[in-house]
Amino acid sequence: MTTASICTIGDEILIGQIVDTNSAAIASAFGAEGIRINRIVSIGDDRDEILSTLRRELERSDIVVTTGGLGPTKDDITKGALAELTGAKGYYSDSRQLDIIYRILHSRGLDVMDINKAQASIPDTGETILNKLGTAPIMVFRIKDGTYGHPATLYAMPGVPFETLAAIPDVVADIREHTGLEAICHRNIMVYGYAESALSEKISSWEDALPEDVHLAYLPNPLTGVKLRLSIYGGNSEDDSKRLDGHVAELRKILGDAIYSEEEDTLEHALGTILRENSLTLSAAESCTGGEISHLITTVPGSSAYYLGSVTSYAVSVKEAVLGVDPDVIDRYGVVSSQVAAAMAQGARKVTGSDYSVSTTGLAGPGGGDGVNPEGTVWVGVATPTATYTKKYEYHSDRKRNIQRFASSALFFLLSRIREDLSQKK
Amino acid sequence: MTTASICTIGDEILIGQIVDTNSAAIASAFGAEGIRINRIVSIGDDRDEILSTLRRELERSDIVVTTGGLGPTKDDITKGALAELTGAKGYYSDSRQLDIIYRILHSRGLDVMDINKAQASIPDTGETILNKLGTAPIMVFRIKDGTYGHPATLYAMPGVPFETLAAIPDVVADIREHTGLEAICHRNIMVYGYAESALSEKISSWEDALPEDVHLAYLPNPLTGVKLRLSIYGGNSEDDSKRLDGHVAELRKILGDAIYSEEEDTLEHALGTILRENSLTLSAAESCTGGEISHLITTVPGSSAYYLGSVTSYAVSVKEAVLGVDPDVIDRYGVVSSQVAAAMAQGARKVTGSDYSVSTTGLAGPGGGDGVNPEGTVWVGVATPTATYTKKYEYHSDRKRNIQRFASSALFFLLSRIREDLSQKK
User: CB distance from B398 to chain A under 8 Å?
Assistant: First the structure.
């Protein structure tokens, strides 16, 4: 199995100023290719520390990826360390990256200074993969057997997250071309509504019956549910693909609608696809989720094709004035109730003219319950062209995570109701 | 200077399933105490790897903090490794943590099983700090000079982020009590609207004039601006405190309103405080930010005291129907315009009855500009009891980060306008 280490370089992570999202993105992409990550290390902008850490990781792993340390004011440290590590005799300038540097800076109305041009300068032991979104190219150093006891490849990537994210597929393609990765046949199955342990129990007989060469991984995430990844390493024949389809079909018999996607990794993307494909429109009425549902829906590029908008009715007066919720219903049942969730969803549907609408009303905390509902309770409502549905969920976390779980529960409940409607039409 | 290493234990981070937010939180809290982080390492659930990594980090740092690996099904590996590392002869049960375990599980309607009780079981070489929000206590191992050449302390914390976050102050207090941290006098000054380099240029003469014992750190963050941290190490006298106040007063003369807080770290918290203290209410009208502004405002506990709600008018029809934006204004000036931003803010103020309202209309991308405005443009509007203001901002990032920057720019512009109004009333 091909192995890798990830090293982030830069004081920003060590002082807690930024959260390292790059490593998770790289680890996840590598995992999908069957590359095992040995360790992730964050170190500061220090030449000796960079050299000793990279040597140690190159000894233990086939691939080492660094991120960061390549900014215009900092690249002397990391780039110089990489030149020393690989025994470079000099530098050359990559003209294609230089073109990108000119284009990016000019588009922002900035002059190209020497420190900017220097970003296209590469140790002569290295090759480049272009960074289309930023100024620092990805540097690739291919190190022969002799040095670390095995052939090793070092990829030096920029630290800016959207540049790193965009370059990962190119790095993976380079690995596939040069390192001879094992072929791999995959299926990702997104499951919502089960804790990992409960899911494992539910599908244990199916799991036990899987052939030995079919590997199953559980990848739980509080916002998107559990991703089940089925893999056949070394398998890429049509036959392997059909075998995996067969196992997924068996799994669907057990889990039913809890499987919400095999193509997309998030509820909001799966929801977007089904709405777009069926020319349906959506709106939202939020209370305790405070805008998070709307935010998630609109993170999907192209969401304006199906999403009309939302009302966040944090105050009761807004529930009444904008969404038209009957004050008597609030008085009689309380704000956190099935009835108010239903009225909010109906109100948003009416006021925006959407086909579907989803609503939330609950208690994210802190401050405890309302006497009837404990903190962590949410009622979700879904108004459809023909009916209104509500469902209660309960969580036990802090305010921030309760809000996130309320939002993902609402998206899942909505998605299930839309699927149900579509299946009845067929 | 006291130094520390952070080790996260668990396969979840290595396979990219979760982003490591705990390390940033710990590093940030330690940094505020003058503790320098040497490195952050993520390793898998592997006994040998845990032992060799902890030994190496205990050699180089005064303090090592581990997170994760203490769940009910996994604690045998990490806890066993810690027992072996510290030469424990057996385990004891911490009765106070056991009480918490019973309370938490019972409150969720769950039975306490043996694997749950085992979480209160501690190697006899260790002490505990209670985990009030979770089942696994924080374990503390104080290791004398002989083993690593210096006294070292190992803290084993849980991996669940809200439990870790809540326990950090207790760990810091323990370090302060036992390790003899240097006293430290701090001021945090939050500045919005400057890139780090531009800010550095703007305040260079002030910075150059700082006495040698006053240290300045720049902590930039795209969402909250640049945090300037002024510190006097070893200083905690009233005189030191007054000196720092003097330097901050000088800085205010240069930066003016760009300084938005000395107490709070985020725009939404600073905004919440000023609204609450002045009994003002707020609403929002979002387009391209899609709910993110409302989400940020409502992450603040107690925001229901001042926040009434919002309308996310993703579709033009919702801008017209719910917010009452004149279709002629949209036709004449385009959706992304000062005029529409103003009308949206006024509409939200009217429909919710709030004192203030903030609006956004722009192009988060992808897909390029609209012929007039490039992708990354946002118009922000603020409607006040007496007037309406608008301002244009431009960013160059991907969809997700553009949305975040649009939202933080809107919050800052709103905060500035409220401050301006309040200062004129005085």
Answer: yes
Nearest residue of B to residue A315, measured between CA atoms: B308
Q: CA–CA separation, A333 vs A249, rounded Å?
A: 43
Contact B314, B287 (CB under 8 A): yes
Whole-model pTM?
0.86
> How far is residue A202 from each of residues A198, A258, B9, measured CA to CA in Å?
6, 12, 28
Does A30 touch chain B if contact means CB atoms closer than 8 Å? yes
Q: CA B69, CA B169: separation in Å to the nearest integer?
A: 21
List the pLDDT tens digit at each of the 426 positions of chain A: 899 999 999 888 898 888 899 999 999 999 888 899 999 999 998 999 999 999 999 999 999 999 998 877 766 689 999 999 999 999 999 999 999 999 988 877 788 888 889 999 999 999 999 999 888 999 999 999 889 999 999 999 998 888 999 999 999 999 999 987 877 888 999 999 988 878 988 999 999 999 999 989 888 887 888 999 998 887 777 899 999 999 999 999 999 999 999 988 899 999 999 999 999 999 999 999 999 999 999 999 999 999 999 999 999 999 999 999 999 999 999 999 999 999 999 999 999 999 999 999 999 999 889 999 999 999 999 999 999 999 999 998 889 989 999 999 999 999 999 999 999 887
- Quickly name the fold that domain B184-261 has: Alpha-Beta Plaits (3.30.70)
Q: Do B309 and A309 touch (CB under 8 A)?
A: no
Beta bridge pairs of residue A229: A188, A217
User: From CA A206, how far away is CA B216, in angstroms rounded?
Assistant: 60
In angstroms, the Cα distances linking B339 to B245, B327, B330 are 42, 11, 8
- C-beta atoms of B308 and A317 within 8 A: yes
In whole angstroms, give the CA distance from residue A74 to residue A9.
11
Domain with residues A3-179, CATH architecture:
3-Layer(aba) Sandwich (3.40)
Q: Which of B308, B359, B389 is nearest to A320 (CA)?
A: B308
Note whether B307 contacts A315, CB cutoff 8 Å.
yes
- Closest residue on chain A to B162 (Cα): A398
8 Å CB contact between B191 and B258: yes
- A212-A214-A218 Cα angle (round to 5): 115
Beta-carbon contacts below 8 Å between A and B:
258
Nearest-CB residue to A396 (from B108, B289, B397): B108
Amino acid at A125: T
Sorted by where each begins, the domain ranges of chain B are: 3-179, 184-261, 267-425
A330 sits in the region (left: phi over 0; alpha: psi -120 to 50; else beta) called: alpha
Domain B267-425: which CATH number of 3.40.190.10, 3.90.950.20, 3.40.50.300, 2.40.30.10: 3.90.950.20
Beta strands in B257-332 (DSSP E): 259-261, 282-286, 307-313
